[in-house]
Automatic annotation (TrEMBL):
Residues 12-196 form the Ketoreductase domain. One of its GO terms (molecular function) is oxidoreductase activity. Keywords: NAD, Oxidoreductase. Belongs to the short-chain dehydrogenases/reductases (SDR) family. The keyword ATP-binding does not apply. This is NAD(P)-dependent dehydrogenase (Short-subunit alcohol dehydrogenase family). PANTHER family: DEHYDROGENASES, SHORT CHAIN (PTHR24321), ESTRADIOL 17-BETA-DEHYDROGENASE 8-RELATED (PTHR24321:SF8).
Length: 259
């Protein structure tokens, strides 16, 4: 049985941020096929509307919330949508993120630093702050935050704000897991390797850079977005019922490869 047909998320109401593109869009489709009801979050309402149409056409239940994850208001509206439309919240894939412009630390404009931290790290905090009470009211649930290998096992030049924001998610997640454990709330970080999305394509923007990035991975390729979505599905599902406070690397071996 394929993961999408196994209904491993049957009936769960899940928020997916960054659902308008890449990993988040693949996750929204996969989770929906696995039986979840989706609150799809992003800024691009046209792409969210197209996703919504697809999910509903495939028999899924979904709603969209357009907004900037850097603001607490978007996080609250997403939780409100889950509660008012689906009767509660069972989990979230807090996945929206940006790399920001590439620049060495000494050249990085502080406003660029602020924007990346606000989106990737403060946005995750706002999401968790809005989601935890709803999960508590539900008697438990699962949160997954999308980090990366950059800033964890690889110091990638030019990506200071991105690396710092994503490394910060590990600390945030550990605390949420410790605080939420007694209330049956699990929290984990997902660490993808290079993934073939608009973000991945922007980083590997020439054939030479793409070949170089692929070669950094033990598998000598980057991931399809669905491969990362499958790892997120595992962490959100009851298959991961004893997995909390940890980081799952779905990174094609980029963290261990020296060849
Ligand atoms: N691709 C890779 O190689 C790779 C590797 C490791 C980790 N990751 C992480 O995986 C996650 C998904 O990235 P992706 O590769 O799928 O990139 P992507 O295709 O560029 O998608 C990023 C998503 O995040 C949303 N987003 C960005 N800023 C937002 C904001 N301020 N408010 C609301 N939504 C926002 C975008 O939606 P809108 O445009 O509609 O706002 C989009 O849906 C990111 O956290 C990224 O850091 C990616």
């Amino acid at each position: 049985m394929s993961p999408s047909s196994s209904r491993r998320l049957d009936g769960k109401a899940l928020i997916v941020s960054g659902a308008s593109s890449g990993i988040g869009a693949a996750a929204a489709r996969l989770f929906s096929a696995a039986g979840a009801k989706i609150v799809a979050v992003g800024r691009d309402s046209a792409r969210l509307a197209a996703l919504l149409e697809d999910l509903r056409a495939s028999g899924g239940e979904a709603v969209t919330v357009s907004g900037d994850v850097a603001g607490a208001d978007t996080a609250r509206r997403a939780v409100d949508a889950a509660v008012s439309t689906f009767g509660g919240l069972d989990g979230a894939f807090n996945n929206a993120g940006i790399t920001g412009d590439m620049a060495a630390v000494e050249d990085l404009p502080p406003e660029q630093w602020d924007r990346v931290i606000a989106t990737n790290l403060t946005g995750a905090f706002h999401a968790a702050q809005a989601q935890i009470p709803a999960l508590t009211a539900r008697g438990g649930g699962a949160l997954v935050f999308t980090s990366t290998f950059v800033g964890h096992t690889v110091g990638f030049p030019g990506m200071a704000a991105y690396a710092a924001s994503k490394a910060g998610l590990l600390g945030l997640t550990q605390v949420i897991a410790a605080e939420g454990g007694p209330r049956r709330i699990r929290a984990n970080v997902l660490m993808p390797g290079g993934t073939d999305t608009p973000m991945g394509q922007a980083v590997a923007h020439t054939p030479e850079i793409r070949q170089h990035v692929e070669g950094l991975h033990a598998l000598k390729r980057i991931a399809a977005p669905e491969e990362i979505a499958r790892a997120a599905l595992f962490l959100l599902s009851d298959d991961a019922s004893f997995v909390t406070g940890t980081a799952l690397m779905a990174d094609g071996g980029v963290s261990i490869c020296r060849s």
